[in-house]
Structure of Heat shock protein HspQ:
Amino acid sequence: MAHSTASALPIPSARFGIGDVVRHRLLDFRGVIFDVDPEFANSQEWYDAIPEELRPSKDQPFYHLLADNDEQSYIAYVSQQNLVADDSEEPIDHPAVESLFHAFDHGKYHLRPEHRH
């Protein structure tokens, strides 16, 4: 039986996983991933607020991060193309880290058992 090919391009697979520590490629912040969307799943208003020259494609994984920088901690939503692995092995300074993760080992956080699916 012949396989037909879909006309749509396949969505790239996620490069990072829950608990991975990453750094933004362009902006000065890092974070730990706590959720992954296989493709863009935020509001159009949020997307339109990104300057057009920096606006990423929607058909790639997007990551929810517990993020921090020198001034504050916050939740960030970032496209895969704008993330790189953080190899500093430094923990993330975010107040929600301890409620989601129980251990930080070799640069990676481990999800608390009650949050695993």
Notes: Confidence is low (pLDDT under 50) at residues 1-7. Residues 21-115 form a domain with the SH3 type barrels. fold (CATH 2.30.30).
